[in-house]
């Protein structure tokens, strides 16, 4: 566990915190530092878990999961958030399923040049994610219109908006409290050690 504030370990949790820690457990059975950093205020941890799962892991989402994770990674690059980038780029690369393609996409995102690897709806989503992250006060209706014109429906536009909004929130939470991946199992699809 690593952050600039105290985090409570499972063995020191009271019943209220233990209940929320159990809600926050990953498929590996662990609680990542991104959630554990809330341990002094279990209500914000509970809200965070619910928001995260609704934005990124909801069965109703129709944007392909690899693209959801790629959007997440791009927002994290734009915000210089190493924690989220480590987790969500690992997930995206796994879901892309092609090492060469993933490497090309990763380079393009780090270069802030998604047009080098994307076109159509995928490129429109990356442009939307960048503008909403870097210049949120300059968003206009035409930014949403561009997504529609690229073939996305309003539900998918909402999905993208929520993913971008969530990662802007969590990147600031992580960077603002110095949360690191120390002790975490990095990536949703990683195998737990042990």
From TrEMBL:
Molecular function terms from GO: peroxidase activity
Gene3D superfamilies listed in its UniProt record: AhpD-like
Name of the molecule in the record: Putative peroxidase-related enzyme
Keywords from the UniProt entry: Oxidoreductase, Peroxidase
InterPro entries documented for this protein: AhpD-like, Uncharacterised_peroxidase-rel
Superkingdom of source: Bacteria
Membrane spanning residue stretches: none
NCBIfam families: peroxid_rel
Entry keyword Cytoplasm: no
């Amino acid at each position: 566990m690593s952050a600039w504030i105290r985090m409570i370990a499972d063995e020191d949790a009271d019943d209220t915190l233990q209940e929320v820690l159990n809600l926050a457990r990953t498929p590996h059975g662990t609680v990542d530092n991104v959630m554990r950093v809330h341990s002094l205020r279990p209500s914000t941890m509970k809200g965070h878990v619910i928001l995260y799962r609704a934005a990124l892991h909801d069965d109703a989402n129709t944007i392909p999961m690899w693209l959801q994770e790629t959007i997440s990674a791009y927002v994290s690059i734009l915000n210089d958030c190493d924690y989220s980038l480590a987790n969500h780029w690992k997930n995206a690369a796994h879901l892309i399923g092609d090492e060469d393609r993933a490497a090309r996409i990763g380079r393009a995102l780090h270069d802030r040049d998604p047009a080098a690897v994307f076109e159509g709806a995928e490129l429109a989503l990356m442009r939307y994610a960048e503008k909403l992250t870097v210049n949120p006060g300059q968003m206009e209706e035409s930014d949403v219109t561009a997504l529609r014109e690229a073939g996305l429906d309003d539900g998918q536009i909402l999905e993208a908006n929520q993913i971008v909004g969530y990662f802007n929130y969590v990147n600031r939470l992580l960077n603002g409290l110095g949360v690191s991946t120390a002790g975490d199992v990095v990536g949703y699809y990683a195998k737990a050690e042990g």
